[in-house]
């Protein structure tokens, strides 16, 4: 006979405001099997948890139901408390009477009635809960980092410095990401490449880091502690081991007029190229779409001039399988491409700003390249159309961001600061120029950030106009910017030589596809979702996968680096133990009932179901049944719903438990 | 107008089965052959397992050979030798069930010797086993059969079955009739049908796909389906059965034939088969499939019913 | 903000079978956002829609559910890779069966509600509750439960004909 304890939480007033908690406790006490029921102001607090623990001892409770917030919030807390009191943690269930009841219903009688029913359901369920022993699985102490921007680099270095092996996978031919493209960084105006390139070199030289550039994640198998990653190393057409990085091939390549995406298509590169001089690895790659050899079969100049014989036109994509125990996803961002609307995107375009049509309307990253000493103009601010130095530059903030009607409602976070930085860089380079900024409001919290922004206005003479731009159009060699200054309530018209748009930060294209391979969730913009917005900000809901940087949401460099180190710390925490303890919510086969039709095996997305032979003592085969590998099983229960005889059962969600709840209705 | 169906080939088929059974038993290709033999009542037939070539002459094939013998390979194995390859006589519909069992790892092809029947149809009922096979007396499943010639057997008598006359598609018509009803009319129809059920489980016993060692409906912890023959439990039982057979049932219609209460059980199975064909373009056939329509998916499956 | 609540004569019992990762979290979000919806719904949490067995739906109807909601992650978002795809097929088939035996499909709602769609959860639950309220109680399965005795008649003409033929 079960002796169930029911604990009703007031959650301050969050629950008790609409739910009569005393009545719920009184009703719960009358439910069959309930030995003790009480209510308390904050059940999750220390005294609240002690109340639960003491009641277990005092009333010899066998099962516990905590009626409080969502189990997604505090199930762990209470299961831990119950465990400390000597009960198996899986004999504790939570009844969600906050998110699913008190917060969504106003009528006190109705909410109270519903709360009693919810508690009743969980009381019936918990009676059928079984003691579940924790599962331990071995941990491969090797990490995968996806993305070689500053986030991935930081995470990889931290983990590698701790003594663990790291596999770093980067889609582009070089690591460095967007930070390598930046000219100078706020709020200190130090040169981005000066602080970035040493870290890139550290990665290249680190004995614990295996670097796969020009590579993508092909397939992800396995589970926390035991992932198998298939990496597609795209054909570089240059042998990485033979190449010395002398660069002769690039100087001799006859194809010299290919827009370099690293320079936002402002500069030109050859068909065999490194994206920028400080690239890591310093090994060129042949752009097969533009290479004459690949297009017509006639050229091969690079191969002829290459001393070490590293150029290899025959090279093919390679699939490499890397066993790892943890994954850090650091795929970063891209800027909202104002001219093109990605297929299927819910985000509406911004045709009125003429980006893509008017050559002198550029985005923030292009301005970074113009301002960069290693950029296409050698650091001179020259406008794209005629190469002249612009004397009036208009910066427009919140292009794409914070526009619900256009499809992006979030703030891109970095634009206020980088636009302020742009006005300063411009003022430093063009002393007689004037910068104007159209902005909605300045969002500049952060260490030394507000001071920086004030400096742009007060010392560097940028003119900030509070208001949005309604229209841009070309007039002669000028761009007429029509906007409003809402602080004084007048229409403003500026004849600009150059317009810079602070376009929204978006996840990389294909972020959703990678998420699907990894089995992690993402929001409607394709930013990856953390397990908990406040308390688990670097973990994914999928165990063993962690997030770093702008793939999770817009972030500046300090935030990105902090999160990368945090993700690395999480990985190191996982690697601190040789064996990982797993929640025992896994499927189990009842071998006496199984007839081996393997419907379970067919529907298992994890390949957790194996075939097992049952033999008698003489070794004669009696039958072949299914076996679920508890280390691989993720606990979805699709097998059980598929099994006709229910000979496979998901612990924690057994038919008994579910039917008990239905029957309690 | 009632029309006689030409089954003159059945005597040739009988001869061919006998000689093939004799051959495979005498050269030890198989250890037994499962087939049909004459029953005690005139014209009736019953299943038989023969293990010697001398018994081959007991085998027959007539329009009264209704049974799906495939159950003797899985559940009713009492008289079947435990070792050696087994020969079995299969009609097209039986073969589709057998192929389904191959796909569900219940049988191994190399352990079987399949003697296929070029079938012109069988009787709908054994109440009058010596009745003439006509457009009236023919089994409903045969009216909609498109697989008279079994494919992939080890031996098929070389006769071409006479083409069937135009037959009323009884299941399709009945499904259409029910579909045209209002939900409450349909509920009344099935309520009456299911209320007849006495839970004898003959349907389960005879079904080649009900091979579970412990049926979900016999379980007590928890009791998923009420076991007493009362309307609620009956309805649940037939729904569960239809669902478990969906995408697997090959349409041998044995459940309907053996039902002592004449519940139109195959109607449910045909309806599910029709829906799965329309939804997922999947139906039982002669080719062994790794996965069935409900153990696989496509990312672009229809979801117009999901909000 | 406080609207006078309309009192109804019939309060339908709505049972929601949801996956824990998307729809349960979406319902949590509706709570965190303090959205309001009818209190008729009772939520049963599953790890994944792939775990939801059609038998549970039958059980729920027998237990007096007037409306049923089955909801999980959007295609491609399944926490368990493909559980929702399997569920989608399973319930595509099962609803056809229910329809065929005479269950009004307006009583069963299938939906994808992500962890970010608190508003959609509220809409889905409210719409289903109001729709089922307008339809009135689901009596079919309940009536069957109440019918104590086997209703077949042992000496009906059909059976008689069978005996005589034997």
Automatic annotation (TrEMBL), chain A:
The keyword Phosphoprotein does not apply. This is Heterodisulfide reductase subunit A. The lineage of its organism: Bacteria, Pseudomonadati, Thermodesulfobacteriota, Desulfuromonadia, Geobacterales. GO terms for molecular function: 4 iron, 4 sulfur cluster binding; metal ion binding; oxidoreductase activity. InterPro entries: 4Fe4S_Fe-S-bd, 4Fe4S_Fe_S_CS, FAD/NAD-bd_sf, HdrA-like. Its cofactor is FAD. Keywords: 4Fe-4S, Cytoplasm, FAD, Flavoprotein, Iron, Iron-sulfur, Metal-binding, Methanogenesis, Oxidoreductase. Belongs to the HdrA family. It comes from the Bacteria. One of its GO terms (biological process) is methanogenesis. Residues 234-263, 282-316, 585-614, 624-653 form the 4Fe-4S ferredoxin-type domain.
UniProtKB/TrEMBL annotation, chain B:
InterPro entries: 4Fe4S_Fe-S-bd, 4Fe4S_Fe_S_CS, Helical_ferredxn. Gene3D superfamilies: Alpha-helical ferredoxin (1.10.1060.10). The keyword Chloroplast does not apply. Keywords: Iron, Iron-sulfur, Metal-binding. Residues 187-209, 240-270 form the 4Fe-4S ferredoxin-type domain. It comes from the Bacteria. One of its GO terms (molecular function) is iron-sulfur cluster binding. This is 4Fe-4S dicluster domain-containing protein.
Automatic annotation (TrEMBL), chain C:
Residues 14-136 form the F420-non-reducing hydrogenase iron-sulfur subunit D domain. Signal peptide: none annotated. It holds the Pfam family FlpD. Keywords: Iron, Iron-sulfur, Metal-binding, Oxidoreductase. GO terms for molecular function: iron-sulfur cluster binding; metal ion binding; oxidoreductase activity. This is Coenzyme F420-reducing hydrogenase, delta subunit.
């Amino acid at each position: 006979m079960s002796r169930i304890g029911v604990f009703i939480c007031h959650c301050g007033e969050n629950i008790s405001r609409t739910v009569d908690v005393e009545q719920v406790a009184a009703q719960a006490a009358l439910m069959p099997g309930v030995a003790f029921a009480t209510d308390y102001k904050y059940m999750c607090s220390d005294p609240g948890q002690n109340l639960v623990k003491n009641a277990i001892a005092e009333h010899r409770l066998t099962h516990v139901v905590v009626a409080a917030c969502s189990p997604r919030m505090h199930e762990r807390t209470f299961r831990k408390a119950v465990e400390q009191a000597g009960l198996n943690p899986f004999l504790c269930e939570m009844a969600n009477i906050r998110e699913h009841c008190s917060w969504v219903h106003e009528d006190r009688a109705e909410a109270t009635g519903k709360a009693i029913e919810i508690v009743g359901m969980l009381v019936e369920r918990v009676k059928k809960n079984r003691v579940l022993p924790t599962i331990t699985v071995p941990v491969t102490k090797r990490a995968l980092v996806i993305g070689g921007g500053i986030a991935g680099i930081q995470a990889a270095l931290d983990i590698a410095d701790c003594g663990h092996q790291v596999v770093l996978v980067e889609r582009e031919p070089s690591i460095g990401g967007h930070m390598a493209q930046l000219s100078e960084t706020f709020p200190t105006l130090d040169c981005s490449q000066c602080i970035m390139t040493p870290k890139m070199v550290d990665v290249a030289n680190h004995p614990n880091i295996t670097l796969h550039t020009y590579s993508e994640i092909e397939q992800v198998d396995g589970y926390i502690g035991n992932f198998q990653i298939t990496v597609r190393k795209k054909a570089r057409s240059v042998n990485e081991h033979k190449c010395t990085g002398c660069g002769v091939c690039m100087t001799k390549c006859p194809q010299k007029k290919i827009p370099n995406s690293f320079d936002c298509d402002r500069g030109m590169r050859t068909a065999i190229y490194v994206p920028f001089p400080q690239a890591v690895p310093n090994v060129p790659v042949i752009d097969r779409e533009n290479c004459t050899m690949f297009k017509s079969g006639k050229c091969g100049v690079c191969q002829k001039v290459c001393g070490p014989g590293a150029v290899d036109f025959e090279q093919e994509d390679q699939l490499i399988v890397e066993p790892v125990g943890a994954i850090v996803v650091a795929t970063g961002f891209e800027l909202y491409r104002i001219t093109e609307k990605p297929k299927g995107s819910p985000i509406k375009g911004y045709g009125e700003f003429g980006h893509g049509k008017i050559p002198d309307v550029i985005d923030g990253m292009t301005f970074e390249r113009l301002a960069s000493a290693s950029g296409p103009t050698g650091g001179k601010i020259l406008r794209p159309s005629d190469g002249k130095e612009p004397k009036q530059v208009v910066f427009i903030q919140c292009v794409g961001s914070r526009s619900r009607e256009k499809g992006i409602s979030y703030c891109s976070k970095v634009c206020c600061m980088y636009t302020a930085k742009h006005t300063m860089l411009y003022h430093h380079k063009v002393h007689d120029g004037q910068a104007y900024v159209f902005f909605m409001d300045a969002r500049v919290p952060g260490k030394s950030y507000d001071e920086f922004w004030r400096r742009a206005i007060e010392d560097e003479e940028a003119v900030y106009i509070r208001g949005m731009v309604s229209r841009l159009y070309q007039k002669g060699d000028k761009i007429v910017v029509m906007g409003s200054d809402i602080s004084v309530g007048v229409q403003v018209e500026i004849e600009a030589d150059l317009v810079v748009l602070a376009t929204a930060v978006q996840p990389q294209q294909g972020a959703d596809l990678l998420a699907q391979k990894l089995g992690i969730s993402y929001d409607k913009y394709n930013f990856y979702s953390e397990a908990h917005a406040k308390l688990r900000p670097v973990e994914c809901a999928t165990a063993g996968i962690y997030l770093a940087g702008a793939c999770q949401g817009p972030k500046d460099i300090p935030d990105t680096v902090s999160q990368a180190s945090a993700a690395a710390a999480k990985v190191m925490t996982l690697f601190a133990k040789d064996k990982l303890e797993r929640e025992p919510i896994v499927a189990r086969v009842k071998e006496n009932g199984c007839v081996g039709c393997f419907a379970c095996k067919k529907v298992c997305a994890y390949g957790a179901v194996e075939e097992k032979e049952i033999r008698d003592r003489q070794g004669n085969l009696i039958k072949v049944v299914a076996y679920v590998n508890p280390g691989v099983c993720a606990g979805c229960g699709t097998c059980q719903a598929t099994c006709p005889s229910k000979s496979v059962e998901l612990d924690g969600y057994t038919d008994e438990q579910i039917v008990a709840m239905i029957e309690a209705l | 107008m009632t029309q006689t169906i030409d089954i003159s080939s059945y005597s040739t088929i009988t001869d061919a089965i006998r000689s093939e059974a004799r051959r495979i038993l005498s050269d030890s290709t198989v250890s037994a052959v499962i087939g049909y033999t004459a029953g005690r009542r005139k014209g009736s037939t019953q299943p038989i397992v023969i293990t010697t070539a001398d018994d081959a002459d007991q085998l027959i094939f007539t329009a009264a050979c209704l049974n799906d013998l495939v159950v003797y390979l899985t559940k009713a194995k009492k008289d079947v030798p435990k070792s050696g390859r087994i020969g079995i006589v299969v009609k097209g519909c039986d073969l589709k069930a057998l192929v389904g069992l191959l796909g569900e790892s219940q049988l191994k092809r190399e352990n079987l010797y399949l003697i296929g029947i070029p079938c012109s149809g069988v009787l709908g009922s054994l109440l009058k086993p010596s009745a003439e096979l006509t457009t009236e007396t023919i089994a409903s499943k045969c009216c909609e059969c498109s697989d008279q010639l079994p494919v992939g057997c080890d031996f098929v008598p070389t006769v071409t079955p006479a083409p069937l006359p135009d037959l009323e598609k009884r299941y399709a018509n009945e499904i259409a009739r029910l579909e045209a009803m209002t939900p409450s009319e349909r509920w009344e129809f099935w309520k009456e049908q299911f209320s007849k059920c006495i839970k004898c489980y003959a349907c389960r016993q005879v079904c080649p796909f009900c091979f579970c060692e412990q049926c979900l409906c016999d379980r007590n912890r928890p009791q998923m389906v009420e076991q007493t023959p009362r309307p609620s439990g009956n309805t649940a039982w037939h729904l569960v059965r239809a669902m478990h057979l969906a995408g697997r049932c090959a349409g041998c219609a044995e459940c309907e034939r053996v039902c002592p209460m004449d519940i139109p059980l195959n109607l449910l199975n045909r309806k599910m088969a029709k829906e799965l064909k329309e939804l997922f373009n999947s139906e039982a056939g002669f080719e062994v499939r790794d996965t069935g329509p409900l153990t696989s998916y496509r990312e672009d499956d229809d979801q117009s019913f999901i909000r | 903000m406080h609207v006078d609540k309309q009192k109804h004569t019939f309060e339908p019992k709505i049972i929601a079978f949801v996956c824990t990762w998307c729809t349960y979290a979406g319902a949590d979000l509706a709570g965190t956002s303090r959205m309001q919806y009818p209190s008729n719904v009772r939520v049963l949490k599953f790890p994944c829609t792939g775990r939801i067995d059609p038998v549970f739906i039958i059980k729920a109807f027998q237990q007096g559910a007037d409306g049923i909601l089955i909801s999980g992650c959007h295609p491609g978002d399944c926490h368990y890779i493909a559980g929702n795809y399997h569920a989608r097929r399973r319930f595509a088939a099962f609803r056809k069966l229910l329809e065929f035996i005479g269950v009004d499909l307006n009583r069963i709602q299938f939906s994808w509600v992500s962890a970010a769609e608190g508003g959609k959860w509220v809409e889905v639950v409210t719409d289903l509750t109001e729709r089922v309220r307008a339809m009135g109680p689901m009596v079919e399965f309940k009536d069957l439960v109440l019918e104590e005795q086997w209703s077949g008649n042992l000496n009906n003409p059909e059976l008689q004909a069978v005996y005589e033929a034997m």
